[in-house]
Design a protein that fits this description.
Length: 165
């Protein structure tokens, strides 16, 4: 499929699953309620394979245990900040190209400039599932041919219900 055909397909069909491009995802926030809210929003978008940690140090360890397709990280956290985590990841060849979406409730221009300068994207809290989806679509790589083919079959297969007796 050529690039114009892919663009046409993406505009006119919403079948390419965001979850195929975003899973597994790592969610980092020092606020447990905020992690729960973001997890629910991700679930609404079909992204269910989400690991969560509460600080940047734990995130850095987790990033070496599992390969993620995206990291969604709070900017302002106690101890090591999200910006410091992104910087450390950029210096490591294994995580240098990992897409980061930074979240912040702060309107402080310093935080916003740092988030814009280090990460692929940022989003201001509070946000909606639609806002999160837009940001993820912008920072994640374009769907592959495999993603498109897998998505074309989705929804067209007969539903089979299984019963246990």
């Amino acid at each position: 499929m050529s690039i114009p055909e892919l663009d046409f397909y993406l505009r006119d069909n919403e079948h390419v699953s965001l979850s195929r491009r975003a899973e597994p995802a790592l969610l980092i926030d020092d606020s447990a309620p905020m992690r729960k809210i973001v997890e629910r929003l991700l679930n609404q978008l079909g992204i269910r394979d989400v690991d969560q940690v509460s600080d940047a140090r734990a995130a850095f360890q987790q990033l070496h245990r599992r390969r993620y397709k995206v990291v969604i990280c709070d900017v302002v956290m106690d101890g090591v900040t999200g910006i410091q985590l992104v910087k450390a990841c950029r210096e490591n060849p294994e995580t240098a190209k990992l897409p980061f979406l930074m979240m912040t409730a702060s309107m402080d221009p310093r935080y916003l400039a740092q988030a814009k300068g280090r990460a692929e994207g940022y989003i201001l809290k509070p946000f909606t599932a639609e806002g999160l989806q837009r940001q993820l679509q912008e920072i994640l790589p374009a769907p592959t041919e495999d993603d498109i083919q897998a998505s074309q079959g989705r929804g067209h297969e007969p539903k089979v219900e299984r019963f246990r007796f």
